[in-house]
């Protein structure tokens, strides 16, 4: 099933949050749920698709998402070993206290920003990662206390990126009759060949022009940009598995090494050789 799905989250009796480590790399789960969600994933490189935002992450990602914000599972099609920690919070996690207690004012602002999706980096990500990895060894009350510390750290941080410029309307995605999964499925099978916009448009029963308009509206990038982003994310995986730059270039479907180097630098911020050297130390 490739259309957007409502995920039904079950909580243990007497708990206001759910802590787990899903492994869904072979599953396309384009979904939403009323619960807030904090995701931490460690992997060579992966895809981050939250609302209309599509980008890649390298080595790790930490993202906080608000209620009913559509997103793809962060471990989709990961090509090497990985670890993931997910915390889902009841929509009324802090009840009415979050709106009326002055002590929660900054956390309330964090929850409001989460409607757009927030990716954290730098020292904030490092500090929170350490706390998240320790949660499994604590009892429920201790987990709750540490979770509040995590939220406080995130709320006070200035090391973050807002992923969507506008509040994402769930209805915008629910009304979408195109199955985004069909596009990802096509890309996963054809990234190393020559992905053809005409073919993928036909798969979702649109003319090429209509598909291009649709895709830009849904993701804020062109299909060509998506193809390049997808290929570069896979290239990062190959490089971190110690493949050489030339081998990687052709393995992900590029025909020109110079163009691959130029595009990789544009997307990642460093050339492939530098990227590999800096991460295989």
Automatic annotation (TrEMBL):
Superkingdom per UniProt: Bacteria
Record's keyword annotation contains Glycoprotein: no
Segments forming domain HTH araC/xylS-type: 181-278
Keywords linked to the UniProt accession: DNA-binding, Transcription, Transcription regulation
GO molecular function: DNA-binding transcription factor activity; sequence-specific DNA binding
Family matches, as InterPro entries: Homeodomain-like_sf (IPR009057), HTH_AraC (IPR018060), HTH_AraC-typ_CS (IPR018062)
Any single Pfam family the record assigns to this protein: HTH_18
Signal sequence residues: none
Protein name: AraC family transcriptional regulator
Species whose genome carries this gene: Mucilaginibacter gilvus
Lineage of the organism: Bacteria, Pseudomonadati, Bacteroidota, Sphingobacteriia, Sphingobacteriales
């Amino acid at each position: 099933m490739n259309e957007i799905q409502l995920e039904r989250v079950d909580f243990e009796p007497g708990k206001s949050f759910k802590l787990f480590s899903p492994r869904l790399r072979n599953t396309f789960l384009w979904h939403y749920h009323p619960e807030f969600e904090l995701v931490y994933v460690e992997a060579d490189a992966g895809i981050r698709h939250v609302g209309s935002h599509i980008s890649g992450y390298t080595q790790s990602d930490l993202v906080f998402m608000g209620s009913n914000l559509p997103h793809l599972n962060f471990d989709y099609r990961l090509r090497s070993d990985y670890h993931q920690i997910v915390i889902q919070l009841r929509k009324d996690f802090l009840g009415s206290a979050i709106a009326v207690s002055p002590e929660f004012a900054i956390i309330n602002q964090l929850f409001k920003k989460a409607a757009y999706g927030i990716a954290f980096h730098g020292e904030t990500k490092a500090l929170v990662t350490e706390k998240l990895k320790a949660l499994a060894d604590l009892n429920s009350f201790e987990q709750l206390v540490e979770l509040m510390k995590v939220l406080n750290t995130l709320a006070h941080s200035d090391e973050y990126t807002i992923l969507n410029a506008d509040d994402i309307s769930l209805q915008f995605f629910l009304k979408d009759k195109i199955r985004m999964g069909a596009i990802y499925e096509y890309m996963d099978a054809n990234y190393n060949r020559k992905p053809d916009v005409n073919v993928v448009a036909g798969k979702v029963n649109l003319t090429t022009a209509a598909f291009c308009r649709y895709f830009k509206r849904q993701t804020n990038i062109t299909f060509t940009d998506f193809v390049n982003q997808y290929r570069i994310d896979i290239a990062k995986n190959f490089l971190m598995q110690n493949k050489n730059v030339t081998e990687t270039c052709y393995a992900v479907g590029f025909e020109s090494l110079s163009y691959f180097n130029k595009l990789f630098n544009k997307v990642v911020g460093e050339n492939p050789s530098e990227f590999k050297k800096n991460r295989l130390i």
